[in-house]
Amino acid sequence: MPIADIRRYAGLARRQGTDAERLQLLKQHRREVIARMEQTRKHLAAIDRKIAAYRNVIGTREP
Asked: Can you give the pTM of this predicted structure?
């Protein structure tokens, strides 16, 4: 979570009646984390394809 959002969350946590705002902030953060995870999965898949291609070139099956 970006520092600005952490500060916003902390400020909200110090006040009564901000549960809905905190929930929205956390839900947005969750969406962003899921999007980054998906991007990371795509990067990992690309790396795995490149590793497989190099293994085919050099003829190895090592992990």
From this structure: 0.76
CA-CA-CA-CA dihedral for 51, 56, 61, 63, to nearest 10: 0
Q: Which two tokens stand for residue 29?
A: 């953060």
Distances in Å between the alpha carbon of 52 and those of 23, 38, 40, 44, 61?
A: 43, 21, 18, 12, 9
Look up residue 52 and give its two tokens: 């497989």
% of residues, the chain, pLDDT over 90: 90
Burial class (CB in 10 A: 0-12, 13-18, 19+), 4: exposed
